[in-house]
Design a protein that fits this description.
The protein has 214 residues and is an alpha+beta fold. The protein is built from three helices and four strands, in the order ααββαββ.
Length: 214
């Protein structure tokens, strides 16, 4: 077997020895630089992601603000609608049902009693109190009959009408208007207060109140 011969002179052989300490230091520096570079790369990526998320959130916020501004108009219209419906509901529930009063009156008037005049005064429903009937709602009746018993019977029957109260006989005796002088006609004048018999929450005849713009 051939033997290897070191051709490097003995004086130069020390220079070819490996400096292990220096190599370790260089390797450590390289590792540190790589770690710093990798860390910077990762942090930079995270920062970019956070900046993109922030930009997306700001864009969504601006979009929501635009939508809220657009919806605020409908909110105002809805408020106007509710206010108008409340006013209409109050007027509707406080109105005087003249047709109902006349219908009930026709059912209780005796056959031998007739009216010469009828006057009904009512308050503005918008100014009426929901809890108390308006004091200026009143009805006055003037007519004739043939006996005071008929007048008394009419007074009793008027008590059966729920919408009437404080029924008062103003006068009885003298005929009202033109009558047959050959007959014994007794005139009368009756006044009464008209009450609202509707509930405050009486439903409107329509489902909704239309407001301009809706």
């Amino acid at each position: 077997m051939a033997r290897r011969i070191n051709l490097v002179p003995p004086t130069e052989r020390a220079r070819t020895a490996t400096n292990v300490g220096m190599l370790g230091f260089v390797a450590a520096v390289i590792v540190v630089l790589f770690a710093l570079g990798f860390g910077y790369y990762m942090l930079n990526n995270r920062l970019s992601d956070r900046e993109q998320e922030l930009a997306d959130v700001e864009q969504q916020t601006r979009l929501l603000q635009t939508q809220v501004a657009a919806l605020s108009q409908y909110e105002r219209l809805a408020s106007q609608r509710a206010s108008t419906e409340q006013v209409v509901q109050g007027v509707y529930s406080q109105r005087t049902l003249v047709a109902d009063i006349l219908n009930e009156l026709s059912l209780v008037v005796p056959e031998n009693v007739w009216f010469e005049s009828m006057q009904l005064t009512t308050a503005d429903p918008r100014a009426a109190n929901v809890d108390d009937a308006p004091s200026d709602n009143a009805i006055s009746l003037e007519g004739n009959t043939y006996s005071f018993e008929n007048v008394a019977q009419l007074l009793v029957r008027l008590q059966l009408i729920p919408a009437l109260s404080n029924i008062d006989l103003a006068q009885a005796g003298l005929p009202v208007g033109a009558v047959d002088p050959t007959k014994d006609v007794k005139g009368f004048s009756i006044g009464a207060r008209v009450n609202n018999t509707q509930a405050p929450d009486t439903p409107l005849p329509v489902s909704q109140v239309e407001v301009e713009g809706l």
